[in-house]
Amino acid sequence: MSTEPIATWSRRGKANKNNEVSNTPKRQQWESEYPMVSMAVAIDQILYYTYEMHLARTRGLSTKHNYTEVLSVPKARNRVLAEDVRATINVPSVRTSIMDGFAVCVEALSQTSTQNEPKEYVDFKVVERMYAGGTGGASASPQELQPGECVYVTTGAPVPRGTTVVIKVEDCCPCRELGVPYKADDSDIPEPSQASFIRSQASAAYATPGTFIREVGSDVSAGQIVAKRGQRISPALLATILSAGANQVVVTVPPRITVFSSGDELLTDETELGESSPMIRDSNRPMLLSMIHQEIEGSEATTRDGGIIRDTYDDLVNAINTAIQTSDVIITTGAVSMGARDLIKPYLGEIGKVVFGRIKMKPGKPTTFAVVPRPSQAHGEASQESCLFFALPGNPVSAYVTFLSLVLPALRLLTGFSVDALPAPELLPSIKSKLDQAMQSGNYNESAFSTSLQLPKVTAKLAHDIVIDPERDEYHRLVLTWTPGHNHKQQGEGGYFLAASTGGQASCRLLSVAGSNALGLIPSHLAVEHNMRVIPKDAWIDAWLTEPLNDVQLPAPTLKPGQRISTCGCGSKHEMESSHSSTESKVPSSSETNVRSAQDHHTSSSRIKVSLITVSDTRVPKTDLTGAEARKILESFQDPSPFEVIEARIVKDEQKEIVRCLQESSYRSPGPSRPDIILTMGGTGFGPRDVTPEATREVVGTRIATGIEHFVMKTSLKFTDMGALSRGTAGISNQTIIINLPGSPKAIKEILPALLGILPHAARLIRGSHEH
Ligand code: AMP
Ligand code: MG
């Protein structure tokens, strides 16, 4: 409860740019003035402004800013290049040997062996020894090789003019000891002065000119760009720059990041906590500082611990104004909600531009992002720089989640992580105008920035139901465990992440974070558009990895940032099936095998995947004649059939059970286990337990396929007027068409063949651009 007198609110409301404060009381507006933006818009707005800053910082030495400096290459490790680096020389600048061996002229080989009858051994006269760096020979640059002559060369040594191949020392032997290889040292290499011979194996491997020779400029040619501005100088890039001849590089001064906590209730980490004290320890600041160190480790960003800002206007103004002068990024936690002492948002509005002040995310709703200008002086000229300001919520879990999802991508961009994946700078104006429109309309699905700036994303299977928040996308803390499938030895196959919640998700409960290794997205639109209250157990969700997966044996290819693990694993499918409740079972079928090859998956992805669900209290797989009939019709529709029955399940006439089964099937990840079409059979009549249409409507919401309903009815009435007594419905859940059919095998025989004529087209339409 707020104890703040109204006068403070008036101060806050009236503060102007000069930090002058009026004493006129003003009522607080409890409705936030900031529109609630979607996560997609929030992330891209942040990245848009960060990218602008990144471009300004990497504009090279000639700008009016203080962003750049010149460093010797070894000192520039992990810095971000502000200018392209061009090779000053060819690499290599002379022809060199890739192997320890003998440089020979290929003409010598062709003279002594024909193509049809390659001679096993060819003799060469050793005329020179040449070591790396050009040392060791009688002359620094050997004479042109003559046929029949050779020069002993070590790896990296220049080869004489006329050399066309280098024969590895392993393929040579001294004449006098035929077949016995040379010793590892060069003690038995014949002396040039003795005009001795070597005997070499003239195998076909040496028929191509250039074998084991690095040609001049073959790695890098003089003038070529070897490192681009904006790139972080990784150890490998540093080596490349050095080898290409550059001595110095123009790099950006590391971004300076200041972290504050805010709140009168906070104690610094050294202070003892008292019993029954209203004071709490400031855990956010140390957490964020260590996350920055961990997450952008090696990027050379500098962090500053700004301390605690107390909940007074003066303290806030002092702290922020000072920090702005010396920071490129400021991160605060707390004081952004609707409480009387939540002063940061309005102050940011006074000194800069609040890009957004509320996000449709849970936790993290009041997260605010602002861009604050600061005057600068560089090279004697006045100009303006800016500071990115992340005001995160005070609750520790909210601070944790918002840092990882919103701040980390920006810090990665600024520190040269994944610059190749950024959009072309010319696109920025159109990105901005789309974003500004989306602030109002909310329509913004496709990110303009690479997801590799974010945490690596995987798809995971829920170990239990999770309730959906209908208003905000929730980032649920999860423990992911890797579960190998039946086929885990096959590349990229069989296995999945099982996602278990860490329990109570209150945003103050740090324990929900401490044991977790992922954040799972529970999207609110499922509740709004699909009327779902929970995401059911066994459904697939997106999850971002927050911890390294050291103990997980990932199938090859291994996980890359931003890459989704393919869920095309039959392992997953079978695991799913084995975890079904006892009311469901599979109809055994000849087409079913426990392990399918990766190749099968690809051919099957073009077929229309059908899930058969028999709704009955009494049927068991053996007596499910309806399911068997449907399968027969589908599989013999054409040769080969465009349909593939991927599962057959039996569910009791319980609305909840049917809903759960429909949702579980239709919300699987795209892949061989997600059906294009679900045919339910049974439970459409007038009996008290006939609830299939009700369950289906609960799942499809407003996405009813009226035409299919009519089609089924019309077809059925051709055979019997009793067809009018079926209440079956049809509609769409996610990207799956659900169609209710009556439960008798006779009705299936009558209706299904007609329906099959329209289903392939319907399936194509619904797959649309999301084709797997
Ligand atoms: P606020 O956003 O300032 O309203 O804070 C929301 C909740 O988070 C309050 O219960 C605060 O006590 C708590 N909180 C704020 N800042 C911190 C912090 N730095 N460390 C731990 N808890 C905090
Ligand atoms: Mg506070």
Notes on the structure:
This protein is flat. It is built from 19 helices and 35 strands. The protein is an alpha/beta fold and about 775 residues long. Strands 8-5-7-6-10-9 form a six-stranded mixed sheet. It has a six-stranded mixed sheet with strand order 17-14-18-23-22-19, sandwiched between helices. The site of magnesium ion has 6 residues, from loops.
Instruction: Tell me which ligands are bound.
Output: adenosine monophosphate, magnesium ion
**Secondary-structure content class:** alpha/beta
Quote the distance from N terminus to C terminus: 52 Å
Number of helices: 19
Strand line-up of the largest beta sheet = 8-5-7-6-10-9
Strand residue content: 15-25%
What composes the largest sheet? 6 strands, mixed
Principal-axis shape equals: flat
Total strand segments: 35
Mean pLDDT: 82
Helix content: 25-40%
Q: Using only CA atoms, what is the Rg?
A: 35 Å
Parts with pLDDT < 50 across at least 5 consecutive residues:
1-28, 110-114, 553-604
